[in-house]
Amino acid sequence: MRITNKTLVNTFLSNLNTNLKNMQKVQDQMSSGKEIRRPSDDPYGATRSMELNNTINRNDQYLKNIEDSMGWLDTTDTALGQVTDSLQRIKELMISSTSGTKTQTELDANKAEILQKIEEIAQAGNTVFDGKYIFAGNNTTTKPFTSSGSGTINYIDRIAPGNPNMSTDGPVNREISQGVVLDINVSANEFMKYKSLNPDGTPVTDSSGNPVYVNLVDTLNSIKTDLSPGGKLSNIGNDLLDQMENHIDNILRYRGETGAKYNRMESAKAKNEEETYNTTTILSSVEDINLAEKVMQYKVMESVYNSSLMTNAQILQQSLIDFLR
Amino acid sequence: MPSIFSSLYTLRKGMSAQQYAINTTSHNIANANTEGYSRQRVTMEASRPEGVSSFNTAFGPGQMGTGVDVAEVIRTRDEFLDTQIRNESSTLERFKAREQFLSEIETIFMEPSENGLSKAMGEMWNSWQKLSGGAENSNLRNGVIDSSKAVTDMMNHTYYQLNNLESNADVLAKAQVYDMNQIIGQIEDLNQQIMSVRISNNNPNDLLDKQDLLIDKLAGMVNITTKRGELGNVEIYTGSTKIVGPGKKSLSFVSSVTPDATGGKIDYYAKGDTNDFKQGVDLTPAQYNSLIGAKLVWTDESGNLEKVQLDDGSIKGFTSIYKEINEYKDQLNALAKGIAYAVNTIMNDGDVPYVEGTDPPVPTPGYIPLFVTSDGNDDGSITAENISINRNIANDLSLLKTNGKKSVSPTVYYPANNGDRALAVSQLRDSRLFINEFLNSSSSVISAQFKGSTNVVLANSPKNIIIKGNGTEAAITVSNGDSLQTIADNINANADIKAMNVKASVDDGRLIIQSMKTEDNLIEVSDDDSGSVLEALKIYGKDSLELRLNNSIVSHYDKTQLSMKISDDSKGTTLDNYFKDTIAKLGASARQATGMIDSQEALVSQLGVRKESVSGVSMDEEMVNLIQYQKAYEAAARMISTVDEMLDIIINRMVR
């Protein structure tokens, strides 16, 4: 095979170009830290990276949902705790009012404290989390409880029954992982009343067969009336005390539910974080470069490049002309 | 016995022959770096000897040499290598043209990255999630509008860039066609010159080199085969079409092909020349059918037009990229439609923009879509180019409904701050939608949901549905009580419809009439009873085509469910995955192009080395030759002085 000067030059140039192209690619990868810069670098890897990024992105959103829900549930629990405390205190005052013989002055003092506690219940019922009334269901911007300021409270379900815009019963759904939706709402309408039961445990029903509920507002109103002069103090020691205990149990049930949901959120959070961590690890193995490896590759390419420059500089210079007189 | 002067003559011939050789050597050295040059060699041969034996000649010891003649100057070239290089460079240039555009498309899509459409879509679904947890918060409502706007803006922009790229490809392809015709002109000029040199029995080495170089360039543009005639003139074919030589056809660049009553009309730039625009040239129906959608056309001197079929070369690369760009545009359109219809459906609880069965369409009261076209229409003409956010919603955020259903009969909704609907929208990212249905919707698929029983109820039966396509039409009889399958079978059995490449099928309670040839084969469906047949079949005219498609998606939305979910389609993919598949396809396509370029470049450069080894000028070799010829020249000169001395002896000293 004849080798001409042009052959040498062309071979040199195309090799040099190949070397530089390879170096450019590694340099691009090193400076960006990414193995895949465009889909054609690795079509499968590119789409995998898109998918994993997507998973991480939505997991982040689920984490935000979970954390937001935990805050909501925590606040719910605290508020229900306050209501329970108030009810416990009212119960104590009821017992104190009926034990021994109390003068009307003493009863008035107890009543005054009970009125304060009732106001506290309304306050706890109007607890706000992140700008939303937590016990108002979907009507998050409507105050669920109203109070006269002197121990007469009410809530919107009772004020306008059947009006969906005055109801606290709607679901507050949160998606905590793909397809898993949890209703985190405890509505005022739920914790403020319990289903009245016959001694045999069957629900008490009205004439049209609907269950009869005992409402805390009614119970509290009765307590107030019976503590007032002319009231039937005996009711406070018997029926009303039973009702009060049932109300406390009812609220404790919702507190228990809230706690269970909180626990579920905690485990969802742990799972979410674990998943994000794993996905990030996989993503990193798909799209991140191994720096040590790339540096080695680059060094090898660099030395190949240098030696090709060096040898060619010497070979290309020489020809027969240099040796002719 | 020869005369002493004959030696002088012999030497003079020798000197001039060496001089000729030295001249050729200097020509070689001067052209050492000329592209396409092949080294030349002087063939010397001994001249015709004196003293051919005959009866009259004095006898002697043998024939007397008379010196040297230059027989010819030839170029060293391997024509087989030329053919190989041309074939391979056709392929190389095709993929180079493709790669150039594919890598631009990759840049346009910006994937995988933090700024791409995939990320924007993820953010959009996330913003719905956020809204579902805080519907009373107008910031979160704004967040949905903003993130949706980011998606639509990105789609508009990507589409715009793809459009730009397409017109870029247009300009480049036209320039290439023009260049090609220029090169062909030069090759033909050289043919004339070569023939005139050949006729006088000389070797037109440099002209041939020049012509071969032009043919090499031509081979980069289209795949070619060459044939050299007796007189050195070359004829070139691409496939079976002659492009250089008598009776050749020229490549022209098509601007548009439009149908008319007598077939069609074509506008084209003759030979790719911007200044030679032929407008409104009539086409026969057969020509129209063969040229529809074409970018290139063969023209001959008498103005005949013929379909172009290229196999390779950069022009093939450019034309193949059109199809590819349009595929990406279609897929982007399908994605835009998919997002728009899915979100709008849930936003409007399964209502469609227009009351079903109305023609002209009557808007559905209370229908408020989030995604509309840029001019505010929501009639199904949404594409990636025009998808935008409904201004009414952006201006009045309370129109963005987030509340779910409390009960379905009677339909009662939760209060406005309930987030179930927003949650359902965000969960669309997991719904497997039949997005490919949207892919075809812009051109050739008509599908319809057949409501109620699977048999047609038709008052004035029998009647016909008429399917038009490819310039022909066919009628299919539909009778009262026919099943959808019977109608589909009748359509498939019709020979005319088969020729149109149209097929019908029944799928999931829908009659689908589909043009199988994807490219520009529009079909039109009508009937002979002012629309009543199509009404019964729930197939509408072309205008409300997309509306029907919308319905078919809606058919997967069950209004009787509280969940407000679009049920999964077994043939469907999620919106995210659909886009991912598009990117995967783009990546594979671009990777194939770069891979082919690498291997073809290696191949062409190997062949180039072999060609260089045959035809290239080696300085060392030329130096050696130079010394060789120079020494011979010197020796001849020395001989002349020797003969001169001999003459001196004879003339001046022998006779006194």
Fraction of residues in H or I helices of chain A: 55-70%
Structural class of chain A: mainly alpha
The fraction of residues assigned to DSSP E strands of chain B is 15-25%
Unreliable runs of chain B: 441-454, 517-521, 539-555
Question: How much is the average pLDDT of chain B?
Answer: 83
Q: Largest beta sheet of chain B, briefly?
A: 5 strands, antiparallel
Number of strands of chain A: 8
N-to-C SSE string of chain A, H for helix and E for strand: HHHEEEEHEEHEEHHHH
How is this structure best summarized?
Chain A is mainly alpha-helical.
Features:
heterodimer; A: 325 residues; mainly alpha; two-stranded antiparallel ribbon; 9 helices; 8 strands; B: 656 residues; alpha+beta; five-stranded antiparallel beta sheet; three-stranded antiparallel beta sheet; 16 helices; 20 strands; 49% helix; elongated
Describe what you observe in this structure.
- The complex is a heterodimer of chains A (325) and B (656).
- Chain A has 325 residues and is mainly alpha-helical.
- In chain A, strands 1-2 form a two-stranded antiparallel ribbon. A two-stranded antiparallel ribbon of chain A has the order 3-4. Chain A has a two-stranded antiparallel sheet with strand order 5-6.
- In chain A, strand 3 and strand 4 form a beta hairpin.
- In chain A, helix 2 packs antiparallel against helix 3 and helix 2 packs antiparallel against helix 8.
- Chain A starts with a helix and ends in an 8-residue tail after the last helix.
- In chain A, 32% of the residues are buried.
- The mean pLDDT of chain A is 90.
- Chain B starts with a helix and ends with a helix.
- Chain B is elongated, with a radius of gyration of 39 Å.
- In chain B, a hairpin with a 2-residue loop joins strand 16 and strand 17.
- Chain B has 656 residues and is of the alpha+beta class.
- In chain B, the strands form seven sheets. In chain B, strands 8-7-6-9-10 form a five-stranded antiparallel sheet.
- Chain B contains 16 helices and 20 strands.
- In chain B, helix 2 packs parallel to helix 7.
